Amino acid sequence: MVRNLLVAIMLSFSTICLAQVTTEDVKINNDEIELPGTLTFTSTKVPLLIWVHGSGNVDRNGNQAGLNVGANYIQQFREAINQKGLAFYSFDKRTANARNMPIIRDKGIVFQDFVSDVKETINYFKKDNRFSEIVLIGHSQGSLVAMLASEDADKYVSIAGPAETIDKTIIRQVSGQSAELAELCKSYFIELESTGEIADVDPRLLSLFAKPNQPFFASWMELNPVDEIKKIDQPILLINGDQDLQVPVNDLKQLHESKPKATMVVIKDMNHVLKTVKNQTENYTSYQSPKFKISEELINTIERFVKQ
Questions:
Q1: Quick one: which of 274, 299, 296 has its CA closest to 286?
Q2: With contact defined as beta carbons under 8 Å apart, do 243 and 283 qualify?
């Protein structure tokens, strides 16, 4: 009987180990914009987690062409969360798809465009009865995007979400490098808010405040995360790593103060790209290298929240 029990346990374990991940390429269109992505799952009738990117030209795997960001953190997140029996979808941000660039150059881009892309993605999967619920996971800039798109989602997760408006965030980040440039940034944002454009930009800040970027910043700085999070009625999980170089834990606390019913978790040794790091050198290196492992505590925390 003991032998039969051991055989049964081994067979069960083998079944778990051999669980196949189904992978589907999906292309969602938001009018002229193409948003190709990847859907993965091991079974149906489970929650679907939809990833909402941070700033920049982030692809579905968490990499950014031309910026030496090759952490592959979204792909690692995908693999880990699928092992927990949860479905996952991520897509190439509109700014990561070269086919969209002629449209973006012609029509420009505002913050609400990213919100529209996520809402279109939710609408697509709402029609797919293979999944029991939709959980939005907003990372960095995506935290605010997901807040604004969360109306038709069942749960909301923020990872490394800023609590300040973007003008304050940029001024704070630049002040760590140059007080002079921080003052210039402050004056540019005031000018942008009052006139809708910046007439003359210092060459040192031209890459940040280039003409095509100005309407985007103008639309972004109108939105305050601590106000927007108050409008969410769904269950909320707020996460930040204590080794995040871009978004400090204090932002997490501010978001939680605005929504005290939310669950707040600080993850030890996790940085902005969700990797476990031991020191500053590893923190910087992890942005360029996929060799660093994604935080197990992050995966376990999200699994508990989604399955509760």
A1: 274
A2: yes
Q: In this structure, what are the phi and psi dihedrals at residue 203, rounded to the nearest 5 degrees?
A: -55, -30
Domain chopping of the chain, boundaries: 24-165+223-307, 166-212
Give the model's pLDDT for residue 14. 41
Q: Report in angstroms the alpha-carbon separations of 32 from 28, 80, 145, 190.
A: 10, 33, 20, 33
Q: Which CATH architecture has domain 24-165+223-307?
A: 3-Layer(aba) Sandwich (3.40)
CA atoms of 79 and 293, how far apart (whole Å): 11
Q: What secondary structure does DSSP assign to the chain, as a single string?
A: -HHHHHHHHHHHHHHHHTPPPEEEEEEEEETTEEEEEEEEESSSSEEEEEEE--SSSB-TTS-BTTTTB---HHHHHHHHHHHTT-EEEEE--GGG-GGGHHHHHHH---HHHHHHHHHHHHHHHHT-TTEEEEEEEEETHHHHHHHHHGGG-SEEEEES---S-HHHHHHHHHHTT-HHHHHHHHHHHHHHHHHSS-S---GGGHHHH-GGGHHHHHHHTT--HHHHGGG--S-EEEEEETT-SSS-HHHHHHHHHH-TTSEEEEETTB-TTSBB-SSHHHHHHTTT-TTSPBPHHHHHHHHHHHH-
* β-strand partners of 157: 137, 237
Any residues with CB less than 8 A from the CB of 93 and at least 6 apart, and which?
53, 56, 57, 58, 59, 114, 117
Residues 241-274 have pLDDT tens digits of 999 999 999 999 999 999 999 999 999 999 999 9
Q: 182-211, pLDDT tens digit by residue? A: 999 999 999 999 999 999 999 999 999 999
